[in-house]
């Protein structure tokens, strides 16, 4: 962060009559002005990255999980409302949408999550549980097979992809069930002929 960023941030905090404690790592590129009134800086001790990493991972991973959930919900709504391809729905995302997702995701990170992450520093043997993106996707999209969720999240979309109706998906499943039943009957028939 540059001195200008710190000064602007301090100015806005002064107008809002707020004071903050800013915890920072010892990155040499941080240029901290000495005349900050509303920001108190506290630098982590040298070589403490390994100790604070769980804090970093816990909070950031939770934030990213919420961000991804909001983005997926938005894309799903676009697909359902406009009946467009997945590729087209991704192309409709704007910078404004992304900023909105960031705001919503940060609001979803609870104080308890942040406190739990800092609790790790006081008790290094405590293991923090972070909700995985897949867990939230399963909960929000009613996809019950984790493999299907992972395929959905990591799928490479193209312009030719279209959103299938639930009926189409059910028909495909019904066809697969019929094929499996026919194969099962054929195996049983062959077994009875062999006897």
Topology:
Blueprint: H1 3-15, E1 20-24, E2 39-43, H2 49-82, H3 86-91, H4 95-108, H5 111-122, H6 133-141, H7 146-154, H8 166-194
Parallel strand pairs: 1-2
Report on this model:
This protein has 195 residues and is mainly alpha-helical. It folds into 2 domains: 1-43, no CATH class; 48-146, no CATH class. Helices cover 65% and strands 5% of the residues. It has helices spanning 3-15, 49-82, 86-91, 95-108, 111-122, 133-141, 146-154, 166-194, and strands spanning 20-24, 39-43. The chain has a two-stranded parallel ribbon. Helix 2 (49-82) runs antiparallel to helix 5. The radius of gyration is 26 Å and the shape is elongated. The protein starts with a helix and ends with a helix. Residues 175-195 are annotated as: Disordered. This is Tigger transposable element-derived protein 6-like. It comes from Octopus sinensis (East Asian common octopus). Pfam families: DDE_1 (PF03184). Residues 176-195 have a biased composition (Acidic residues).
Q: Rough shape?
A: elongated
How big a fraction of the residues is strand? 5-15%
Structural category is: mainly alpha
What count of domains describes the coordinates? 2
Main sheet strand line-up: 1-2
Main sheet properties:
2 strands, parallel
> Low-confidence spans: pLDDT under 50, at least 5 residues?
128-144, 163-169
Number of helices: 8
Order of helices and strands: HEEHHHHHHH
How many DSSP E strands? 2
Q: What is the average per-residue confidence, as pLDDT, rounded to a whole number?
A: 72
Cα separation of the termini: 81 Å
Report the helical percentage: 55-70%
- Radius of gyration (Å): 26 Å
């Amino acid at each position: 962060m540059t001195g200008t960023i710190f000064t602007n941030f301090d100015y806005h905090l002064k107008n809002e009559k707020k004071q903050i404690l800013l915890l920072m790592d010892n990155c040499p590129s941080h240029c901290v002005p000495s005349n900050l009134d509303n920001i108190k800086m506290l630098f982590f001790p040298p070589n403490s990255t390994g100790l604070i990493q769980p804090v970093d991972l816990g909070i950031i991973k939770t934030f990213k999980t919420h961000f991804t959930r909001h983005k997926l919900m938005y894309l799903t709504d676009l697909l359902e409302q406009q009946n467009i391809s997945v590729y087209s729905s991704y192309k409709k995302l704007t910078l404004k949408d992304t900023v909105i997702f960031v705001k919503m995701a940060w609001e979803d990170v609870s104080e308890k999550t942040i406190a739990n992450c800092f609790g790790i520093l006081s008790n290094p043997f405590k293991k923090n549980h972070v909700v995985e993106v897949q867990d939230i996707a399963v909960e929000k999209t009613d996809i019950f097979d984790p493999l299907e969720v992972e395929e959905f999240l990591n799928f490479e979309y193209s312009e030719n992809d279209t959103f299938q109706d639930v009926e189409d998906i059910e028909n495909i499943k019904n066809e697969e069930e019929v094929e499996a039943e026919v194969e099962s009957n054929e195996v049983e028939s062959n077994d009875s002929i062999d006897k």
